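Team,

Forwarding the record for the chain on the shared tracking sheet. I've put the sequence and predicted structure together so nobody has to dig through attachments.
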Amino acid sequence: MARQGLFGSSLVKKYWMALTGLFLITFLVVHAAVNAMIFWNDGGVTFNMVAHFFGSNILIRTMEIVLFLGLILHVVDGLMLWSQNRAARPVKYAMEKGGANRKRYSASMGILGTLILLFLIVHLWHFWVKSRHIVGSLEPYGVDAAGQENLFALMVQTFEHPVVVVIYVLGCFSLFWHLLHGFKSAFQSLGINHKRYNGFIALCGTAFSIIVPLVFAAMPVSMYFKWIK
């Protein structure tokens, strides 16, 4: 009997997870690039300028909402499927069979999904709802040297707390582990699987899985230790 998730059959789930996974990879690239602007170390002026552009562009804001909803559904559906199948064979997010790495990854899927979901909720609460004036605003944080809304100041204040930093670092590690296995699996699930370019896809997936979470993790760590001001 086909296993059920949010979207019905295992076949539908396979394509849903793969397509949303690839779509969300684009979001991660953009989000990591914006976050990297803090490393200009100019009091947040460059970061605030770029963040304001993305936050005020109606097309980008619409895509942002769709992406966040997609990410939440991606994580929740994965957790539901893991829960339903943990007593049987692992959920086939990938097309690969067996292997020690696959077994370790499948066994940790519930923990990974929970940590990523926690990371997402904490991140949205800390920054997104305030920067989008859904709950609260950025007014208490004043403006930067260029007179812009100071999202950077909110970040500095948030990452003064070691517990928050630990949550973010754990979330980034979970993201790394998930991407390390999920990047290649998404292509395979969509039938993009050939010996001529499998090696290249695996290489890109490994590089992406390391670089993007590392950029995300470097942000709270750098602010906590006052390397970025």
